[in-house]
Specification:
Elements: H1 5-21, E1 27-32, E2 35-41, H2 54-65, H3 68-71, E3 75-80, H4 84-93, E4 97-102, H5 104-111, H6 119-123, E5 131-133, H7 139-153
Parallel strand pairs: 3-4, 4-5
Antiparallel strand pairs: 1-2, 1-3
Helix pairs in contact: 1-7, 2-4, 5-7
């Protein structure tokens, strides 16, 4: 059994870093052969682009550095289950596997926003298989950061 924990913990740490910088709390890392090769954080506010989700930022970086054959052997670890937009980007990038800590459902319970479309629902429609793992045993840890951010951000605190 693979140990996803160190990579998810790094993604969760990146989500906290994004929040501390003034962006939404999401972070992602790209891993190949048990080595982190790319990192990205959400930058929707500081980047003035609502599509600058952590996973989108990571996929864009990956596309600049690697081809789809290389990415097929990579795993994207992310603090929270990707939205429909990011799930589509993961599919089209060629990344072979995605692991998330906090589910879209749990995020919806905390924030009450988003499309609430599970990533599996998007990815299972494709002709290519993307393996999805999550939520994991670190869901509560990832959710704590959302609990800290969303009520304040949405004016509910």
């Amino acid at each position: 059994m693979e140990n996803h924990e160190p990579f998810l913990r790094e993604a969760i740490a990146l989500s906290k870093s994004a929040m501390e910088r003034g962006d939404e709390p999401f972070g992602s890392v790209l891993v190949r052969e048990d080595e982190v090769i790319l990192r990205a954080e959400n930058s929707v506010f500081t980047g003035h682009d609502m599509t600058n989700h952590a996973e989108m930022n990571l996929v864009k970086l990956a596309a600049q550095h690697y081809d789809t054959a290389f990415l097929a052997d990579c795993t994207l670890y992310t603090s929270t289950e990707p939205c429909a937009m990011c799930s589509g980007a993961i599919y089209w990038s060629g990344i072979g596997r995605m692991v998330f800590a906090c589910s879209e459902t749990r995020l919806g319970e905390i924030a009450g926003i988003g499309l609430n479309v599970p990533s599996r629902a998007v990815l299972q429609t494709g002709a290519r298989v993307v393996t999805v793992v999550g939520p994991t045993n670190l869901e509560d840890e990832a959710a704590e950061i959302h609990q800290e951010f969303w009520p304040k951000h949405l004016g509910k605190a």
